């Protein structure tokens, strides 16, 4: 199996013996690639800004910032990895599942339990990939239909966001960027994120022209919210936005983005 098909895993634990033990168990697993080991959430945050991760194995009791607070932070990301807590303390189990943790392993754990967790994570990631592929096909068909008909839908001025027990109007001017989330679009505003029931391609056809740009199959960004374009360590690109978010740029959309930077 080549490295491109391996799922990427990040370890975050302030105890060196725990990191070494997990590294050893992972070394014999053919489905996972260990891409990093960090002894603090600050280092993990910096690492994840440059390297995509599918699964993070996270300790809870750590100095400066505990694992639960860090998990709440990364759960807000559109590309949030699966999270498994690995800790010596069982009193955090309920809080762990409040942040949608996949699993909760108590130290010391045996190899069989560890590998069972990895198997569950792999199955969930495969299901997630199938769902994304289905959404991509749906988006392509809708996009192709719109292209064939030569039509553009009326431009949106507001979004009507329906949540449990409430309905909210959001002006398009408040939108910083949009990303896919299964059958929804995550609408990123200045200080929060809301879910809107739509596909990202359907949204693209109704956004004000010349105000938004597609940067990825899963992301559309407001042009004047882009602060800068940066090169990643792996040669890829991402943009930094006015609300502090960073969004990866697909190679197929990079040329159009560079035109935006050179436009007079």
Automatic annotation (TrEMBL):
It holds the Pfam family LytTR. Keywords: Phosphoprotein. Gene3D superfamilies: 3.40.50.2300, LytTr DNA-binding domain. InterPro entries: CheY-like_superfamily, LytR-like, LytTR_DNA-bd_dom, Sig_transdc_resp-reg_receiver. Residues 159-263 form the HTH LytTR-type domain. Residues 8-122 form the Response regulatory domain. One of its GO terms (molecular function) is phosphorelay response regulator activity. The modification 4-aspartylphosphate is found at residue 59. This is LytTR family two component transcriptional regulator. It comes from Undibacterium pigrum.
């Amino acid at each position: 199996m080549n490295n491109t098909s391996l799922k990427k895993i990040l370890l975050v634990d302030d105890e060196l013996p725990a990191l070494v033990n997990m590294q050893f168990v992972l070394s014999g697993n053919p489905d996972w690639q260990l891409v990093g080991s960090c002894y603090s959430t600050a280092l993990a945050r910096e690492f994840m800004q440059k390297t995509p991760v599918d699964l993070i194995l996270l300790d809870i009791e750590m100095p400066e910032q505990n694992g639960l607070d860090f998990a709440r932070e990364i759960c807000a990301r559109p590309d949030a990895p699966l999270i498994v807590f690995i800790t010596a303390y069982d009193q955090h189990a309920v809080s762990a599942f409040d942040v949608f943790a996949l699993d909760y392993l108590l130290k010391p754990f045996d190899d069989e339990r560890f590998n069972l967790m990895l198997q569950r994570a792999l199955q969930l990631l495969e299901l997630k990939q199938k769902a994304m592929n289905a959404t991509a096909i749906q988006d392509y068909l809708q996009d192709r239909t719109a292209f064939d008909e030569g039509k553009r839908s009326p431009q949106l001025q507001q979004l009507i966001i329906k949540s449990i027990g409430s309905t909210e109007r959001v002006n398009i001017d408040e939108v910083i960027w949009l990303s896919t989330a299964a059958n929804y679009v995550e609408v990123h505003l200045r200080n929060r994120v809301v879910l809107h029931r739509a596909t990202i391609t359907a949204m693209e056809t109704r956004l004000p022209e010349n105000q938004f740009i597609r940067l990825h199959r899963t992301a559309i960004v407001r042009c004047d919210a882009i602060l800068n374009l940066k090169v990643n360590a792996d040669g890829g690109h991402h943009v930094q936005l006015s609300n502090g978010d960073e969004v990866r740029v697909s190679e197929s959309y990079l040329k159009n983005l560079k035109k935006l930077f050179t436009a007079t």
